[in-house]
Design brief:
Radius of gyration: 19 Å
Distance between the termini: 29 Å
Shape: globular
Bound molecules: adenosine-5'-diphosphate, magnesium ion
Helix content: 25-40%
Number of strands: 10
Oligomer: single chain
Length: 272
């Protein structure tokens, strides 16, 4: 069953002087679906419109035309509020998403405090603390982190805190917009493995955005390729990488720099 349906979605911004007509389209007539439990990888060069697609799915940017539904609910429609519990984002910059004046306990439990009651979740302090501890453990952090502030953590640990927060309301669907692009390769690989593990454990559905083909291939069930706002190719991950149909996809596959260090060892590490 399709959990996410993107139907003929376009986004254009008011044209600036001197730009050609097609330049105003940031996303143009994009359609795809994401099945329950799968990872759809979204890949393309910087500026191809990936984040705009992500933000439209999350309801943070309004499409110029087209329709997006998550779990049968139209994003931006009257029932959008109910989607807040079902889909959560994890963005590229792990620090930017964390309020520096809040302790990890408050950061992780904030979604529960705001939306928990409506979800029938116990939001009294002891229950919140227990939930925060369990979430921290599930992302590989120690519960001693609860009393500390974001600046006390490394980039990888900060991203783990973001993931714990994203999972607080037990969403079905995570939008992962370049979640490891700001991290060292080995730290990123650990986060990718954590995401894989969490997906299996909770039956999560992912939209995984990256400009790195090896990463997208490693994590994705299917891959969608964007070029200049258009979806140029979509297919099963292995088939798309082994037999790309579009020149642009071949270019992306060829242009992807080898991962630093021993590629075989790094990807072997991911599989653990
Ligand atoms: P990607 O995530 O693939 O790098 P983005 O979706 O961030 O691409 O951006 C696609 C294009 O849309 C870029 O050319 C960017 O400059 C433009 N863009 C994004 N947001 C806005 C905005 N709010 N106003 C005008 N142009 C925008
Ligand atoms: Mg982006």
């Amino acid at each position: 069953m399709a959990l996410v349906e993107v139907e003929a979605v376009s986004k254009n911004y008011p044209r600036r002087a001197g730009l050609r007509a097609e330049d105003q389209f940031v996303v143009r007539d994009v359609s795809f679906q994401i099945a329950e439990g799968e990872t759809l990888g979204l890949v393309g060069e910087s500026g191809s419109g990936k984040s705009t697609v992500a933000r439209m799915i999350l309801g943070l940017v309004e499409p110029t035309s087209g329709v997006i539904r998550v779990a049968g609910v139209e994003v931006g429609g009257s029932r959008t509020q109910s989607l807040r519990r079902q889909m959560q984002p994890v963005f590229q910059d792990p620090a930017a998403a964390l309020n520096p004046r809040m302790r990890v306990l408050e950061i992780i439990t904030e979604p529960l405090v705001i939306h928990g009651k409506a979800a029938g979740i116990d939001t009294r302090i002891p229950a919140l603390k227990a939930a925060a501890r369990a979430l921290l453990v599930s992302v590989g952090l120690d519960e001693s982190a609860l009393e500390r502030y974001p600046h006390e953590f490394s980039g990888g640990q900060k991203q783990r805190i973001n993931i714990a927060r994203a999972l607080a309301l037990r969403p079905q669907f995570l939008v992962l917009d370049e979640p490891v692009s700001a991290l060292d390769v080995s730290v990123g690989a650990q986060i990718i493995n954590l995401l894989r593990h969490l997906q299996r454990e909770h039956g999560l559905t992912y939209l995984f955005i990256s400009h790195s083909m090896p990463l997208v291939r490693y994590l994705s069930t299917r891959i969608a390729v964007m070029e200049k706002g258009r979806l140029v190719e979509i297919g099963e991950a292995e088939a798309l990488c082994e037999h790309p149909q579009e020149g642009y996809t071949r270019q992306l596959l060829a242009a992807t720099p080898e991962l630093p260090g021993d590629h075989e060892n790094v990807t072997a590490g991911w599989a653990k």
